[in-house]
Specification:
This protein is of the alpha+beta class. The protein has helices at residues 46-49, 100-103, 147-175, 204-208, 212-221, 223-233, 236-251; strands spanning 10-12, 22-23, 38-40, 55-59, 72-77, 88-89, 92-93, 107-112, 115-124, 130-131, 136-137, 179-187, 193-202.
């Protein structure tokens, strides 16, 4: 079982082994992303996320050897420096929109290594909020999932469905070759330079030159609207640079 970013050690929930397991929901999970400057974003989140975060694309997985397009995934950019998240302050999330990737923590759906066709609800055993003495029970006395765990499972299933939709949308963008390597440069008020690269953004020229039937296809699939949200969101890069400059100026 692979461990996704943010998680420590994913363990499948078992009604016997974990019958007494509880989760302290008062413990802020936002502390897990203090050092993360980006998070996965599903396409259904673009409408809200584009108001605050730059939405970029990155290549994922191994480059195919058959000449087909490499898979890409969208990210919400949270900071322009490695290990810097500008949306966490004093243990709280300061943005208006919290990406679903963080909201699902400390749970996740994952495939069991020896049963590739089996997907299980897992929990991060390294999260301090889990214990057998404090918080919300995950299982009732009869071994059935509590309403709390069932609600978490419903959210996880929705997240997985939207992740599948996102992969399909990104595959279409990659096949149409509508993304290109980009970089962002900024100079802060104290003279410090920020140089961000390694991400993909829409290729404006290729989009403008796209055949009419392809444009109609993008429109009907909703991808044209998603691309526009992505384009609008890129203006948030400058806002993040200003946020980086403010603490630098305060130190100076």
């Amino acid at each position: 079982m692979s461990t996704p970013p943010l998680y420590g050690n994913l363990v499948p929930l078992d009604r016997e082994v974990h019958k007494n397991l509880r989760l302290n929901t008062e413990l802020a999970t936002v502390t897990r992303v203090v050092g993360m400057n980006s998070l996965f974003l599903a396409v259904v989140e673009f409408a809200e996320a584009c108001k605050e975060y730059p939405i970029v694309f990155v290549r994922v997985g191994e480059a195919p050897t058959d000449g087909s397009a490499q898979a890409v995934a969208p990210l919400a950019v949270l900071g322009l420096k490695a290990g810097s998240n500008l949306f966490v302050k004093d243990g709280k999330w300061t943005g208006n929109y919290v990406p679903a990737y963080l909201r699902r923590y400390p749970f996740a759906m994952a495939r069991i290594d020896d049963k590739q066709d089996t997907v299980a609800v897992c929990y991060d055993s390294e999260w301090a909020g889990f214990s057998e003495t404090e918080g919300m029970s995950l299982f009732a006395a009869d071994g059935q999932p509590t309403e709390f765990l069932l609600n978490a499972k419903t959210f996880l299933e929705s997240f997985e469905q939207e992740s599948d939709r996102t992969r399909a949308a990104c595959q279409q963008l990659a096949e149409l070759d509508l993304l290109r390597d980009m970089r962002f440069e900024a100079t802060l008020s104290n003279g410090e330079k920020i140089d961000v690269e390694g991400f993909l953004a829409v290729d404006e020229q290729k989009l403008a030159e796209l055949a009419d039937d392809k444009v109609v296809q993008l429109h009907r699939s909703g991808l044209l609207a998603l691309l526009e949200m992505h384009r609008v969101s890129m203006g948030n890069m400058n806002r993040l640079a200003i946020q980086h400059a403010e603490p630098a100026a305060a130190v100076a």
